[in-house]
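User: Please fill in residues for this 233-position structure.
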């Protein structure tokens, strides 16, 4: 594996905590280990351009407010010195068939409403989805309130304030993929500065729809490899 690949993978995949990623021991930018790079990325703000060593990054996250672990995360990585421009994505989506069929995310489309703007198809790596437990099942027993006891006429009790409830376990199909962006720099530079739809296409035919925040879209245009195009360079 080349030094360039190690740098991008370490910052991209390890920072997203993708399962089954190798534990690299090599040093990357400015004597920063892969683990240190991952910590720096994790602590960085969303939807802003930031640096780790000489690598420029932007991260974004869309999630289900009712189940925050159901989510789509992306990390956009620009290493100008190595001419590497990629996006690493991680997902935990509510479609069991994706995991049951060991499907992988192989295509990503950015849309403005229903209008496709750019399509990412140059796959660098893909981890097939696996089933992941998001939340275990929960059971709440009935709640009885009021006086209760045993008298001359037998047992007497209160009343049921809550009949009890059961919530089944919540699972998701979780995996990760990386895409090369070198061929779509111009279309990324032309993205409108607003929240966009993101369509995830899996190799089993499954489709998932998420969003990319407007702040992230604007931050992408400040990555050096894209910013030069925005500036007309």
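Assistant: Residues filled in for all 233 positions:
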């Amino acid at each position: 594996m080349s030094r360039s690949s190690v740098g991008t993978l370490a910052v991209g995949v390890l920072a997203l905590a993708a399962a089954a990623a190798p534990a690299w021991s090599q040093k990357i930018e400015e004597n920063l280990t892969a683990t240190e790079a991952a910590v720096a990325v994790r602590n960085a703000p969303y939807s802003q351009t930031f640096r780790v060593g000489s690598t420029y990054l932007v991260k974004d996250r869309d999630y289900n407010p009712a189940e925050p672990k159901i989510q789509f995360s992306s990390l956009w990585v620009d290493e100008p010195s190595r001419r590497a421009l990629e996006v690493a994505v991680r997902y935990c989506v509510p479609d069991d068939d994706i995991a049951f069929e060991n499907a992988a995310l192989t295509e990503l489309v950015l849309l403005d409403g229903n209008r496709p703007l750019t399509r990412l198809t140059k796959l660098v790596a893909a981890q097939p989805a696996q089933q992941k437990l998001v939340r275990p099942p929960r059971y709440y027993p009935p709640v009885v309130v009021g006086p209760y006891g045993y008298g001359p006429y037998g047992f007497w009790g209160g009343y049921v304030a809550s009949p009890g409830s059961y919530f089944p376990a919540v699972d998701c199909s979780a995996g990760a993929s990386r895409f090369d962006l070198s061929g779509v720099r111009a279309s990324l530079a032309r993205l409108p500065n607003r929240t966009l739809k993101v369509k995830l296409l899996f190799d089993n035919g499954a489709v998932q729809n998420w969003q990319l925040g407007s702040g992230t879209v604007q931050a992408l245009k400040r990555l050096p490899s894209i910013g030069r195009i925005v500036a007309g360079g």
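For context: The helical segments are 3-14, 34-43, 96-100, 185-189, 214-220, 224-230.
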